[in-house]
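Homework help board

Subject: predicted structure for assignment chain

Our instructor gave us this sequence and asked us to write out the predicted structure in token form, then describe one feature. I got the tokens but I'm not sure how to describe them. Can anyone check?
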Amino acid sequence: MYENFNFYFINPNFKNIHKFEPTLFLGNFLTCIGFMYLFINTLIVDKEFLKKLSNLKNFITSIFVFVISLIFIQNNGELNMPINIFSTIIIYKLMLSISAALGFMHIKFNLKDRYALFVLIGIALLSLSRPADRYLIFLFPFIYMVILKYDYKINFRYYLNIILFIFFNILILTKQYIHGTLCMDAINYLNKKEIIDETLPGDCLGSYGNLFSNNSKNKKYIIKKNIDEENNKKIFKKNKKIGILKQKISIENL
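My token output:
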């Protein structure tokens, strides 16, 4: 589309692709904090943390951060885990908002610690672009330095944290397996019909994009996932479900 007509269509979720967007900074900032602390809140919420949080000023601040997070957190990046694990966008926003409030207070309580300050600056810089979990990975060691500085004892909270990591990694791997399997089913269909050179990889680009022709012209079909509406443009459709994860894939006429 861009090559031929000098414009392109893009999903609204990705309209702020890696460029400075001041209006989205606050939402990105709270989303990053919420996502990063979502897995480690089990470590920070202890007696000492709750004692500090019980202070009226701190409690009001945490409620304020929670409300602001509910308003500004949007699914405008790659921190979605995916959302359908949590049934609705509301549950997703509630979980991230609670996590953002707790995480913000943890950074606030430890702001004099150079590691916490580094994390705050790092999140602020990352918030200037579209949020993505792979960028936050670099900040995890520093926030753990803040946590371990005060508590070296391995207790049930650490085991719970490990269980959460394992659980979400299983979900992610299962989702990738479903997606890869469905993409291969679609490719097998295209090969059988001998139309793979006429098809755009679409949502299978990241998995099997190398199997498709680089010729951008004379394309008649495209692969899409999780499209529910029924129409006459679909020449192939299939769905797969494992546990709570379900995905659909289809090949459609352009």
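Reply (TA_rk): Your tokens look well-formed. For the description, you could write something like this. DSSP finds eleven helices and four strands in the chain. That's the kind of observation they're looking for.
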